[in-house]
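thread: overnight batch results

M.L. [08:02]
morning all. the overnight job finished for the chain we discussed friday. pasting input first so we're all looking at the same thing
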Amino acid sequence: MRMVMVAVVVVIIAALLLGLLFFWRLRALGRRVGSFECAVHVHTRAHWKAGIAAYTRDHLDWYEVVSLSLRPTYRWGRRELDILDRHRRTLAGQAEPVSEVRCQYRGEEFRVVAEDGALDGLRSWLEAAPPDTSTSRIV
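M.L. [08:03]
and the structure it wrote out:
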């Protein structure tokens, strides 16, 4: 009986530590300068996934919410990333306006949904890159 109690206590402590790590990771990602909440749809048969995107100098990193990984799930290079078009979406219960942008990275398309201000920031970040004559980033 004592061994069962020890096992239960160990499992509870491990679960608490994993929970703390999970929330610490979300807080750390959300507090980064240039980070914003968004949902991404990458593959045609995949589902929308909630996450946090963060700008770096040369990349847009996207971290899945339900993960303990400290590495980004997706990383898109600033020079190869283009915004193809943008559409306003209405979501039930959402106070802030949101938009969906269709993006292209190295010939593959994906979509991002976020608040309008966050997507304005994404467009500005792309436009602020040093000039590259091979792409058109203005939508």
